Structures are given as C-alpha cells and as structure tokens.
Give the backbone structure.
Amino acid sequence: MKNKRIKSQGGLPPNKYLSNEQIKKLLRHLKVQVERFEPVGRQRLFVNYMIVDVLLNSGLRAAEFCQLRIKDLPYYHGKAVIDVREGKGCKQRSVQISLGLVERINQYIKRYRKNAKPNSFLFVSERGGPTSYRAIYSKLRIIGRSAGIVRLTPHMLRHTYSMVLYEISKDTFGLQDQLGHRNPQTTHIYAKTSNVQMSQQLEKMERHLQNL
C-alpha cells in the first residue's frame, strides 16, 4: 500500500516567518546601514532597505514585486494602494498600504527614479529591465546573513506580513483580499499559526497550576 501524504493541520512552521524580535533586528540593521553610508552615496543600501520595506509592508509575492511599475504606485495615481496588474493566476487586485509606506516609496522615486516614465519599473536591474526573482532572492539572503537572520527569503517576508496583520486585525477576509488568495483556507493558516491568544491562555494555565 502506498504511503499517503498527511496534510498538516497546524499553522506555519516557526522558520517560515520572522518573530517580532527578528523584525526589529532586521529593520534596525538596515536603518543603521542607510544612516551610516547613504550621505556618501551608497544608493545600494537604500535600495536594500526599500526592497525589504515594500515586501514586509505589502505582502506582495516576489513575482508581483518584480513587476511593479511607477504607474502602479501612489506616486502616480495618488491613492494609498499598490495596483497589482498580474497576480497569481493572472488576477488583478489593489493592495492597500500604510501612509508611511506611501511616503517612503515616494521618497525613493524622487531620489532614484525621478525621471522614470509611468511604465518604467520601480526596481531595475543593471540593464534597466525589471529586477529578477533570482536577484531579489540572492539579495535577501545576503541581507539576512548580514543582519544575523538565517535564510531570509521573499516569501518569508510575505508570511511575516500576513502573521503581523492577522495578529493585529483578526480579519481573515481582509487578509485574503490583501494577499490575493482564491481559497480562504489558504489564508486560514495564519489564524492557526497566531500564537498571541494561545500564549496568554498558557500563561493563565501556568499560574493556575502554580497556585494549586
């Protein structure tokens, strides 16, 4: 008899997303790099920061991120959303983003993509075309090692975005729209992974047992 593959009934494994402390560590590392070197023209460091910033604060898939154009962004259309023209399954959607991210994207464009046309890519390769998944993946691995985080990947940032947003909102329907999931069960994995409420209950249980 063939072995049947058993589907996991739990949430995401802990190595698939960043903890709050890892998020702080990563962002602190990138900010220090930018603040230390940006005045002397280290554009690459600011680009690194923006790559992590956009992925972490939008939940975009890597392929969607690589295809971002100026016309898809608040800088061009004036709304606090990112227009994903070709998501998974060729689906189009609008991803809402914070006003803080809007401002940081606008600053990036003004500094480094000021003369770019609406159809130009937000992040470009050395040849001027869209940056590739391989390039983003490799860059994040280097950033992660530099920040002391093992195996940082684009999808890990997407998972982290999903976990943090669910922890705050407890809204699986809204999260499903943001992520572009067709099946709500795909989104529900973040509810299963959410550990804040369970952690609180376990602490209560600990105190109860100690007081017996």
